[in-house]
Design goal:
Elements: H1 10-42, H2 63-71, H3 75-103, H4 107-124
Length: 131
């Protein structure tokens, strides 16, 4: 019996999840570096005062604004997009694992993964949920 490299099994699932994490982190790092370079090109003489803490402006907390400004090649928004990709990478891995366990018909692990996914979504979107 030959093992098809494209068949669905635990080894294939681990390989895909490893690649998902690796490429997600590499994409995030690339975006942060490109955004940083663009930011310093766009603001060559700007002085930053770090003696007092200033929170992020509201536009850096809204995904649709970050995406639209990143498409306009604004350095700081591209950095924020890179951070969003970094946060989304492990969430995508959990979603992929859930789908993989459903394909394998492994109900116990699919259930555990679903609970983890719910906890992730509650923690990520708790500002928008009314409890």
């Amino acid at each position: 019996m030959t093992d098809n490299p494209h068949s669905w099994n635990d080894g294939r699932m681990r390989e895909i999840m490893g690649s998902l994490l690796r490429y997600g982190v590499l994409l995030a790092a690339f975006l942060v570096i490109v955004g940083g370079v663009l930011f310093f090109i766009q603001h060559p003489h700007e002085f930053f005062d770090y003696s007092t803490f200033k929170g992020e402006p509201p536009r850096f907390r809204q995904v649709h604004l970050i995406l639209s400004e990143a498409m306009n090649f604004r350095g700081r928004d591209i950095i924020q997009l890179g951070l969003l990709v970094l946060i989304a990478t492990p969430v995508a891995r959990v979603i992929f694992a859930f789908i993989g366990f459903l394909i394998e018909k492994d109900r116990i692990y699919a259930g555990i993964t679903f609970v983890v996914l719910i906890i992730l979504f509650i923690s990520l979107f708790s500002n928008y949920l009314m409890f």
